[in-house]
């Protein structure tokens, strides 16, 4: 058993509009992060995870998740599974999401693309 207290979560940011808290268990199979998104993210183009699947749970707010071939609206309490290699961006004024990735997320496998 391992536990990370909220005061031990590592703050970060992907942009001025996407602030994160990382709960890193140093487990290569899964991870947990919380993101507060306050505008379109990324500002242009798409995000893509080359290796991991990402499970999103919406804690607060609402918005849209835009993929190359579809758009899904989300609100508090919704869950979304993003498969590896799917291009997407967030279109929101405000949301807080929980993200769990398998295998664990790493910056080198996450790309911003046009």
Reading the helices and strands in chain order gives EEEEEEEEE
What is the arithmetic mean of pLDDT? 95
Total DSSP E strands? 9
- Summing up helix and strand content along with how strands pair, one would put the structural category as mainly beta
Strand content: over 45%
User: Helix content range of the residues, please?
Assistant: under 10%
Helix count equals 0
Computed Rg: 13 Å
Largest β-sheet summary: 7 strands, antiparallel
**Distance between the first and last residues' Cα:** 41 Å
Shape: globular
Provide structural commentary.
By secondary structure, the protein is mainly β. The chain has strands at residues 10-15, 18-23, 32-37, 46-49, 53-67, 71-75, 79-82, 88-102, 110-113. A hairpin with a 2-residue loop joins strand 1 and strand 2. It starts with 9 loop residues before the first strand and ends with a strand. The model has no long low-confidence stretch (mean pLDDT 95).
């Amino acid at each position: 058993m391992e536990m990370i207290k909220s005061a031990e979560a590592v703050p970060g940011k992907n942009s001025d509009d996407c602030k994160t808290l990382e709960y890193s268990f140093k487990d290569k199979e899964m991870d947990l992060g919380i993101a507060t998104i306050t505008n379109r993210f990324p500002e242009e183009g798409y995000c893509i995870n080359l290796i991991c699947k990402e499970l999103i749970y919406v804690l607060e707010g609402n918005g849209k998740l835009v993929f190359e071939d579809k758009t899904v609206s989300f609100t508090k309490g919704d869950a979304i599974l993003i498969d590896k290699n799917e291009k997407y961006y967030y279109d929101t004024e405000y949301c807080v999401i929980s993200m769990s990735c398998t295998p664990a997320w790493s910056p080198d496998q996450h790309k911003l693309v046009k």
